Amino acid sequence: MIARGVSKSGHWPDGPDFGEARSAWGAVPECNTGNPEASARPPRVRRGHARGWKVRAVDFTGTLESGAKELGIDLDSRVLGLLGRYYEEIVEWSGRVNLTAIEGEEEAAVKHFLDSLTCLLAVDLPAGSSVVDVGSGAGFPGVVLKVARPQIKLTLVEASRKRAEFLEHVVGVLGLGDVQVIWDRAEQVGRAAEHRETYDVATARAVAEMAVLAELCLPLVRIGGVLVAQKGPGASEEMEAAAAALDAMGGRVERLTRVSLPLGYGERTLVVIAKGSPTPDKYPRRPGIPEKRPIKTRQIGVTPTIPVIDVD
User: What is the arithmetic mean of pLDDT over 200-208?
Assistant: First the structure.
């Protein structure tokens, strides 16, 4: 049986032996090799087993590379190769684990991988930064950020056992070091002494409304750290309703970064919340309560001016 809590890189106790797999992108290079040619990707086609998907290495990496350039983000061949292998693992696992409803190389490259990389437009992640990805799911944005910034220390928090198993598997396949996978509720992790108010950055993507995210994520962030929440174009209105929750958790909205995804895939808003004071001991409340009874602002209509940055 898998115990709840931290699992280091490697196999789950009752997990399968996945062995040394290869992909359309070739052998997976060791992390931090410093060799940009280690992940050369031959233009082969490999059919995935999930829902008849067809994995085209050239299509996926081409969209990823051109889209990243459009966003002003440089991806070397090592990063492109690892992200291609990561996508292939998602395809392989999606037949038995609900990881994503998105099908097709272009849509996945933009709406999952490039969307995750937009976090780099909102916050710096220098070497040694500790990052916790809350409600990681298939690993977005956490695993993508780790591949792009291999010197960060990453913790992935996921409440679903099957998804946590996938995360543990893909971390091992990609050879990522300094990664922890935690199979548990964010409310529980936020009360654990070894995680509470210890992280430089928390990330969350498509997890919950902002009032709920504040209670799930800010208890994990150290004073002086930030929460980066990936939201849609209506984030400003959501911040108004979440003002009371942010204040209660010791956070404040520092800025909003608005980004247009490549190929017309819509607008995103990256909400950066700065942690200015400790989160009271009574938060987070017990599992399920933040979603059922979110802390809402009673008087709507008056909020402080929030700096907005538009990324062209």
Answer: 91
